[in-house]
Amino acid sequence: MIRALAALAVLAAPAAAQDVIACDWQASAWNLAEPWEDNSRTFSNGSVRIAKLDVGEPAFGGFFLLVLSPPYGELGERQCRVLTFPATSGFAGIDFDRLEAAYDPSVGLMFTVPVRVFAMTNAVEPVGAMLKFSLNQATGAISPRLELGD
Question: How far is Cα 132 from Cα 113, in angstroms, rounded to an integer?
């Protein structure tokens, strides 16, 4: 009974372990989830691309989200960022088909996508969560929030 109550408490609370990191080995082209056309979408007239990455291992966290977006560098390249859970591993799953986007002029682009995470160090099964993040194209700031529970 105590374990069930503890699990419910974890599911009801937001988790703060998601990170935004500069592109590294996770963002390699060979990690783009196949088929590419189903796991990559563009927004803001093509200036923003969100893609699902699958690095294979670890099995409990092999999925990441790639974000290519303004601001642009000196050579015209977009910034490259990866959303992780936590920085050392990824998500247990990402339901990329259900990625939703909206725009608020005061915030920027806002994204929501269902994910699965191992929320506790001794968890046996991943739990559903909703990854929400905003992107300010003027500054490049990405602000993620993870809400546990589907």
Answer: 7
Positive or negative: CA dihedral 39, 21, 19, 79: negative
- pTM comes to 0.83
Give the position of tokens 């591993």. Answer: 89
Is 31 in contact with 53 (CB distance < 8 Å)? Answer: yes
Tell me if 80 sits within 8 A of 66, measured CB to CB.
yes
**pLDDT tens digits, residue range 79-134?**
999 999 875 688 999 999 999 999 999 999 999 999 999 876 666 788 899 999 99
Q: Decide: 99 and 114 in contact? Cβ < 8 Å.
A: no
Max distance between CA atoms of the chain, in angstroms, equals: 59
Tokens in use for 66? 């790639």
Contacts 24+ apart (CB under 8 A), 123-132: 126/60, 126/92, 126/93, 127/10, 127/11, 129/15, 131/18, 131/65, 131/83, 131/91, 131/94
* 67: enclosing H helix or E strand: strand 63-72
**C-beta separation of 128 from 92 below 8 A:** no
How does DSSP classify residue 98? Answer: G
Tokens of 132: 């929400």
The first and second tokens of residue 114, run together, are 């269902």
